[in-house]
Amino acid sequence: MASVMIVDDALFMRRMLRDILESADFEVIGEAENGEAAVEMFERLRPTLVTMDVVMPHLNGVEATRKILELEPQTRVVMVSAMGQESMILEAMEAGASDYIVKPFRKEEVVETLRRVAVQE
Amino acid sequence: MSSRDYFSLFLSEGRTLWQEAAEQLARTAPDAELLMRIAHTLKGMAATMGYADLTERLHAFEEQIGNAPDRAILEPAWADIGASLDRAASLGHDRELRAATAGEPDAVTADPGASTPLEPGQWVELVPEPTDPMPRARLLQWHRQLSSWGAREIWPEPVRIRSEDSPRVLRVRLDAEWVERLARLPRLQAIRAAAPPAQQRDPAATALKVDLAAFDTLFTELGELHNQVRILRAAQPGGADWERSLRNVQGLVARTLHRASSTRLSSLEPLIDVYARAARDAAERMQRQITLERSGERLRIARETVERLLPLMPHLARNAVAHGLGSAEARQQQGKPKAGQLRIRATQQGAAVRLHIEDDGPGVDEPHLDRLAQRHGLDPARLSREQKMALLFAGNASRRSEADTVSGRGVGLDAVREAIEAAGGEIRAHSEPGQGFRLELEIPVPLSLQPMLELQLGDAVIGLLEPGWTVLEKAPAPADEADHLHFPGLPRQGSVWLRDPAGRLLQADAAHPLGNVYLHAVRTPLADEAAVVGFYLDPRGFPRLVLNPLPLDQPVGASAWTAAERALQTILPRMAKLAPLRNFPDVSRGWQAWSLTWPDLGRVVLAVRTEDPDTLPLWFDFAPEDPVDAVQEKINWIFTRALEGTEIDHHTLIAGGPPQACDLENLERGRITAFCGFGNTREPAAVLLWLEGIAACG
């Protein structure tokens, strides 16, 4: 199954996403707690999929997405955001993010979205 | 992890975050960005746990930081949020977590393609699920997916999708190559047959809002015009009634024309008013001193552009006052006046109105631009200063809480750019560090739509673009001559006085508003002469220059009129070089010729006319793509034939230069008795011929 990196500044969210993804047979190969760490970790691990929080310290999710897609345009980045950040989600989509999930999310929603973008041509 | 584990993790991490923000709020200058981030992270966690009330409170808290980070409001709100967290703790773990871990499915959505048979070539409308929280982001995603499949006809464009008022559906023309794949688009609720977008254009783009009272008056005037024409037909030609009716008709036509154009056009006055008011309000609130200079408010542009720009002006004014003036100390050090200087002024230049919005503050320095580039994910080292400046219009790349000088500068500029580009115009920013900031909005509008005055000054007649002149007819000569606006080289013996917006006076023999004349904007490079904006023909066919003494691109604080006078001093002596042509020896029967020859441009415009009324004017339009040499040759050819008085027919007329759009079908033989050229030989526009001896035409 596809490899995933989880980016979120809350441990709580990272843990929940990890559990959801692992239960659906995704291979979670790394967790980063801010945008800068995410880019740095991405360079080392090169996951196929990234779940990306939007509001984070040290480089926000939109900028981190831009950098990651510059490094590897084939990466599927799925934005994960609470309500109220629509303009940043729009920016992220323009920057090349593949999809987005809004908190609170359902387990199925996360799994379906990641499965879909993983096979997207 | 069990739901109990999630709950404990939520509580411990949530309380740590809460504590961090509480400490921040206790400081004299809390870090708004950090507060925003904590609130947002906690909000995501609370939403995932299913705590609707806590989520709501955190959302309101975020909004409050964005609007005004006031500690007096934020501190009690944060205490309430802490109490909500405590309540959650006391309720225990089994209450919530329904959102993420339960995983109950939504109601089954209908098969998106079921109701519509999908035929290639057909237009369809794609509708996102109503529960999709960010439909615009969804449409962007679909747009990209469809493009990657090879779809070319998709509506609206991504840039339109971003705007708040865009429709929440996507239209696409189906193609056999990928129609099967449509159902794979995520969160697609329905596919409906739709009309092609051209037939369903945004009505705002093609419709016009008209003031009903103005519209009704228009009808009344047209009715009156109808009556006057009847009286005219019944009256004895040349008699007193006939003369009176004719004058009435002329007046009515002029008024009706003005009223009709007012429905389409608006003066810049509301924009400049709102800017000035907002700047003064902001200065008062921020306790800063400003002086504000304004001009050109009577120039007109399309009404819808004014309406689109209106709500954006307060942004620009506040930005200028907050970020565009510099600190009092910095101003003093740089020898700038204590009060910050703001200027908003409009000028007509060629076929466009330019609105300049300027300040004399610190400008935008390089480190700020570098950070701006970085926020857009660009490497500043690879960008020129202009490229980085262009990012000011690229939309907000920063978070709301990062309202520092750079993002503050950029707030609203993307919306201004959209409004200007929708009007077919351009927007530019100019700034050198320490030298102020200037925004330049260029809005295309034909010169002939602007209010004009025709002035008789001794032998010379000029058109004057009317930037707020008042005509004081037969006014007594003012005592203080020094205050007069001198038009050098022109005799000033007349008795009509005009007052410019600065209160200075100009004396002329006659002045009257110019209505219904064909005005032709001067093209580059002649347009570089700041004060010359165009040409027109007076009712007898004489070519006239149009001047706009409001100068362009001068530093803030300098006198507008000094520069205008300087420009006129440069131009008028050049005009004097035309004299030799006036009595050209080969020219008989009262010909007059006026050639505006700028030494550095070669022969620019040629204008020759005769008093002979039995001539027929014909237009020759030169297209911009016509080769310059050929056009010059054509003008020379016309000029030579005109002076020789040689007979021509339409074949030779056409053969004399590049093919023309002029209707010469019925010309058998004729003689060029006069012609007038607009534009110049580098960028020609049109030539008007007076032809004599025409067998039949039209």
Description:
The complex is a heterodimer of chains A (121) and B (698). With 121 residues, chain A is an alpha/beta fold. Helix content of chain A is 48%, strand content 23%. Chain A is built from 5 helices and 5 strands; from the N terminus they run βαβαβαβαβα. Chain A has a 5-stranded parallel sheet, sandwiched between helices. In chain A, helix 2 (35-45) packs parallel to helix 3 (61-71) and helix 3 (61-71) runs parallel beside helix 4. The longest helix of chain A is centred in the first third of the chain and has 13 residues, at 11-23. The radius of gyration of chain A is 12 Å and the shape is globular. Chain A starts with a strand and ends with a helix. The model of chain A has no long low-confidence stretch (mean pLDDT 91). The C terminus of chain B is likely disordered. Chain B is extended. Chain B starts with a helix and ends in a 6-residue tail after the last strand. By secondary structure, chain B is of the alpha+beta class. Chain B is built from 21 helices and 26 strands. A 6-stranded mixed sheet of chain B has the order 17-12-13-20-19-18, with no helix packed on it. In chain B, a hairpin with a 5-residue loop joins strand 10 and strand 11. The interface between A and B is large, with 46 and 49 residues.
